[in-house]
């Protein structure tokens, strides 16, 4: 889909909602990198020859593309950001 087609089918409110959702539950490369790192850790651990060899974890295989990614907001902060985006679009929340 081209940008023009997307703009004709998705309004600003829906677009902002998708941005907020992506921040809370990423569907792109982040999730793929986590899944691949889990498989990589399992493979590396299956090749250990001694119990004393390092036991790998998935985090050992996740690429560190940018140091700033290590300081990502917590889920609570992302929820707050989602609320701010939605409230800016006129959505009212009922807290209970």
Overall pLDDT level: 78
Please tally the β strands and state the result. 0
Poorly predicted runs are: none
Helix content: 40-55%
Number of separate helices: 4
How far the N terminus sits from the C terminus, by CA atoms, comes to: 40 Å
The largest sheet, given as strand count, sense and whether it forms a barrel, is: none
Strand content: under 5%
Oligomerization: single chain
Q: How many domains in all? A: 1
- Quick one: overall form? elongated
Structural class: mainly alpha
For the CA atoms, what is the radius of gyration? Answer: 20 Å
The arrangement of helices and strands along the chain is HHHH
How would you characterize the overall build of this protein?
The protein is 54% helix and 0% strand. It has helices at 3-9, 12-24, 29-46, 75-88. The radius of gyration is 20 Å and the shape is elongated. The chain has one domain (12-88). Helix 2 (12-24) packs antiparallel against helix 4. The longest helix has 18 residues, at 29-46. It has 96 residues and is an all-alpha fold. The chain has 4 helices and no strands.
């Amino acid at each position: 889909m081209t940008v023009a087609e997307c703009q004709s089918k998705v309004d600003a409110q829906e677009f902002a909602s998708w941005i907020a959702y992506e921040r809370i539950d990423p569907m792109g490369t982040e999730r793929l990198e986590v899944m691949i790192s889990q498989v990589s850790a399992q493979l590396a651990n299956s090749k250990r020859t001694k119990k004393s060899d390092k036991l790998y974890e998935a985090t050992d295989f996740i690429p560190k593309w940018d140091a700033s990614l290590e300081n990502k907001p917590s889920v609570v902060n992302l929820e707050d950001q989602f609320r701010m985006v939605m409230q800016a679009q006129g959505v009212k929340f009922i807290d209970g």
